[in-house]
Amino acid sequence: MASENGGESTLTVLLAGGVNLAIAVLKAIAGVITGSSAMMSEAAHSVADTITEVLLLTALRRSGRPADRVHPFGYGKERYFWALLAAVSIFASGAMFAFYQGVTTVFGEPVEQESPLVAYGVLAIAFALESVSWLQALRQVRRESAEEHRSVAEHLRLIDDPAPKTVLFEDSAALLGILLAFAGIGLHHVTGSAIWDGLASIAIGALLAVVAYTLGRTNRGLLIGRQADPVLVRGVRDHLAAAPEVEALVDLQTMLLGTDQVLVCARLDFVDTINAGELERVCVRLAAELSTRFHDVTEVFLEPVPRTDAALRSAVLERYGDWKPSA
């Protein structure tokens, strides 16, 4: 599963990167010819997207390294770090440049528009190419959401692989940005006022800022240490609570270590009739069962504790409120 998703994520990122690089060149040429600030903002937008793909490819490569002495849980979270830098790149090199172009156009000296047909043609080509990349990202997200039996919106909220989400969001922003640029250039063409061009550039900047913030917030949560998919958490909870040797599941904590990598830590009150040797064998068996049943579970730590311990109970209640791991 992980290798298949990693391969498709790489394909999605490579396709998006190639498309964005070609579009960036076309838009920059058209921007110079036409003098359109919206077109130059779109060129900066595509450059930012290209940088994003490079960062995502770095994330996919570095996060796959095996665990070692320095990083015993592996390098899975590197994917979130580089994806966070990609979100910063979208804002720094895309949104800020677009804002600058828009403000200088609206409040600066009027600019003559030249060869608007060139801009229309480039935007049409860009829209067609971006659609190819967008469809690939959407196809991957829809397939993954169907495999997880949840809606696309819910899958995007819970996804632990930032690559397809980043590409889908940036390609969606790219398509909207092209439409905004087309509207701004068209209104400039019709009215003769460059203000429309500048306003379109500002709108593109605002769009990129929203996308950058959304992706940055997602990756921040993953870097901090988000819990696993609630469906997986419930499955782990039910499996442990149903074991005949377990009297009560006292506490359960999970954390995403990377894409398709979940850490499970559980405190269990075992029945008093088993001895120390049996307890060890039960813990080994339960850990193996969790890893077999839930393929994303890569690390399992089980701790025997008495459920009557007041300090432990207080800590669990403070974290979860009235939630109880088991009845």
Work out the number of β strands: 3
- Please report the number of helical segments: 10
Q: Report the CATH topology name of the largest domain.
A: Alpha-lytic protease prodomain-like
Overall SS class? mainly alpha
Biggest sheet: strands side by side, in what order?
Answer: 1-2-3
Distance between the termini: 33 Å
Output the CATH class name of the largest domain: Mainly Alpha
Q: Give me the strand/helix succession.
A: HHHHHHHHEEHEH
Could you list the spans in which at least 5 consecutive residues all have pLDDT below 50? 323-327
**What is the overall shape?**
elongated
Q: What is the correct CATH architecture of the largest domain?
A: Up-down Bundle
What is the number of domains? 2
Subcellular location: Membrane
Organism: Amycolatopsis albispora
Pfam family, one: Cation_efflux
Protein name: Cation diffusion facilitator family transporter
Give a verbal description of the structure.
The chain folds into two domains: 2-224, Alpha-lytic protease prodomain-like (Up-down Bundle); 230-320, Alpha-Beta Plaits, CATH 3.30.70.1350. The chain has ten helices and three strands; from the N terminus they run ααααααααββαβα. It has helices at 2-34, 37-62, 78-107, 116-147, 152-158, 162-191, 195-224, 230-242, 276-293, 310-320, and strands at residues 246-258, 261-270, 297-304. Strands 1-2-3 form a three-stranded mixed β-sheet. Mean pLDDT is 87; it is low at 323-327.
